[in-house]
Amino acid sequence: MADLALGEIRYFESIGSTNDYAATWARDGAPECSLVIADEQTAGRGRGARHWFTPPGSALAMSLILRPEVPEESGQIMRITGLGAMGVSRALRQSYRLPAEIKWPNDVLIGGRKVAGVLAEASWIGDQLSAVILGIGINVAPGSVPPDDWAGHHERPFPATSVESALGAPVDRLVLLQIVLAELLSWLPRLSEPNFIQAWREKLAFLGDWVQVITSEADGGEKPPLEGQIINLNGDGSLRVRLRTGELKSLRVGEIHLRPVDSSLK
Asked: What dotted CATH number matches 9-202?
């Protein structure tokens, strides 16, 4: 990875959470684009504090420390989440010819099955945004897919898969890591450009389809679902949908889950 414009790299055979470690390291002055990577995570997590399954020897678990030039948290988190998902989907499409798509905002699907997840989190010093931690988990080998009786498995409307299962061949994790990082670093300087949003849009799963929009209550519970048709991405990366009433609505990170509507109900 010497040809990549990374900061420092810290590798762990086992760690609780690469995002947690990266956040502490960022507050201690880690250089821009420093990378934390682990063979195993024992306390990895996705959105909504869901546990992310990362057994040893079978997945990629990494966190990249980014220091946005414009410290505007919500917009930066949105775009950096898109950066992570797009980096993985482009790597799988271009280097492995897999039909990877982005389930907005932070999951990567292959054939409707989840192969990767992204978690971007702000790291603060006082009231100043000092860094954004871009966490990425990729199921590489079949052993990275949670078993049916794994805690939280029943909560997933999209069953998991792995890169090797989709490809039907072994995958070198180090090679995949290098390809994903190259994509991330290539797009990083272009986050505010229209072609970044356009490239993200082109990889969207369910574009033009009707989905259930599941929003969260303040206490963490779910509101009754809405049905909406995915229309577009806005310039800030928020999702534009058309509700059954015809109303256009913009949805932001942290507010929704997407569940496809049975085509017979359209």
From this structure: 3.30.930.10
Phi and psi, residue 11, nearest 5°? -115, 140
Token duo for residue 51:
């546990």
- CB-CB contact of 102 with 204 (8 Å): yes
Domain positions in the chain are 9-202, 210-265
What is the signed CA dihedral for 82, 84, 85, 90, rounded to 10 degrees? 110
**What is the residue type of 169?**
A
In this structure, the dihedral spanned by the alpha carbons of residues 230, 48, 43 and 1, taken in order and rounded to 10 degrees, is 40
Question: What are the pLDDT digits (tens) for 34-79?
Answer: 999 999 998 766 555 566 678 899 999 999 999 876 555 456 788 9
CA within 13 Å, CB half, 218: 0
The topology under which CATH files domain 210-265 is: SH3 type barrels. (2.30.30)
Give the pair of three-digit tokens for residue 254.
Answer: 């942290």
Range 260-264, long-range pairs (CB < 8 A, 24+ positions): 260/206, 260/209, 260/210, 260/211, 260/212, 261/209, 261/210, 261/211, 261/212, 261/227
Find out whether 248 and 226 touch, Cβ atoms under 8 Å: no
Question: What 3-state class would DSSP assign to 43?
Answer: coil
Q: Is the peptide bond before 225 cis (omega within 30 degrees of 0)?
A: no
Tokens 């000092």 — which residue?
A: 130
Query: Distance (Å, rounded) from C-alpha 154 to C-alpha 157?
Result: 8
C-alpha span between 228 and 225 (Å, rounded): 10
* pLDDT per residue as tens digits for the range 203-254: 999 999 999 887 766 555 667 778 899 999 998 899 999 998 999 999 886 6
